[in-house]
Amino acid sequence: MNSKKKTNIIDYLKKKNFKRFSLFFLVAFVFLIFSKLSNDYKQTIRLKVKLIHVDDEILIKKDSSNSIEAYVEAKGFSLMPFIFDNTKALIVDAKTDVTVRADYFVFDVTKHKYLIERQFGDAYHLISVIPDTLVIAYSKRASKKLPITFKKEIAYSVGYDLKGGFALEMDSAKVVGPVEEISKMKTITTETLKLNEVKTDINSSVGLDISAFKNVEVFPKTINVKGKVARFTEGVIEVPITIINQPEDVVINYFPKTVTLSYYVDLDQYNHIKASDFKVACDYLDREENQRFLVPKVVQSSEFVKYVNIKQKQIDFIEL
């Protein structure tokens, strides 16, 4: 009994000592890592040049040589991100940081060491860079401006409609691509804007559709569309008829002398609509031979009215 108890105590002490040893070992290892990472180290980092503010027509050729070897010195902590991948993007402005030639950009690496140092940050000391000059080849594509055609499938809630027209963020866009493709394009169509039960103002982003063309890009890719939606109501009004192009030697009598117009107008303007806002005319020369009626047409309407319909489709007449 005593022997068994003694064995259990020894096992417990062994386990306790092992845990204590493991803890001390872990602490010592952590201190060692921190000590190592606090030292200065030198490393070569590959900078991949990324040009910004490049004209839309410019297509940078994919070339593995568009990179710079930067030899830097830094603390181990700062170099940790480059343990598994020693590459970093270098942002270069095509408008201010390079010299433009016919088919290539020239980046003076030595002259722009400050740019590299700034993007590395204060934790890094730049020792050297290779090469001292970088040549970045490009090709230029054709481009032209095209008008934008807006496509929509919009269903408004009962009693609501669009007031005025749609306002596009821009009326044209630039397309860039091969000459043979660009020459075929006459307009750019938006993707279809689909909305249902609309009763509030429209403010949506819609993409420009160039899916029918190969190797063509459009700038911008999307545009904003706005439209004011208002309450609408139907109105009815009597308007006199005017006969136009009636020969001087012809006298006619026609009936009725007025027509009834139904129109769709936004509620705010309903009380401002007058008969004088409209003009209905019958063109005497539009009739066919022996035809004893004229067709009335609305030739003038109020700017606030959306749809107009003439209830009388023909006006009877006789020559006197």
Report on the structure:
This protein is an alpha+beta fold. The protein folds into three domains: 101 residues, RNA Polymerase Alpha Subunit, Chain A, domain 2, CATH 2.170.120; 90 residues, YbbR-like domain (RNA Polymerase Alpha Subunit, Chain A, domain 2); 86 residues, Beta Complex (RNA Polymerase Alpha Subunit, Chain A, domain 2). It has four helices and 24 strands. The strands form five sheets. Strands 9, 11, 12, 13, 15, 16, 17, 19, 20, 22 and 23 form an eleven-stranded mixed beta sheet that branches. InterPro entries: c-di-AMP_regulator. This is YbbR-like protein.
Based on the structure given, which CATH architecture of the largest domain is correct? Beta Complex
Number of helices: 4
- How many E strands? 24
Order of helices and strands: HEEEHEEEHEEEEEEHEEEEEEEEEEEE
Organism: Winogradskyella arenosi
Protein name: YbbR-like protein
InterPro entries: c-di-AMP_regulator
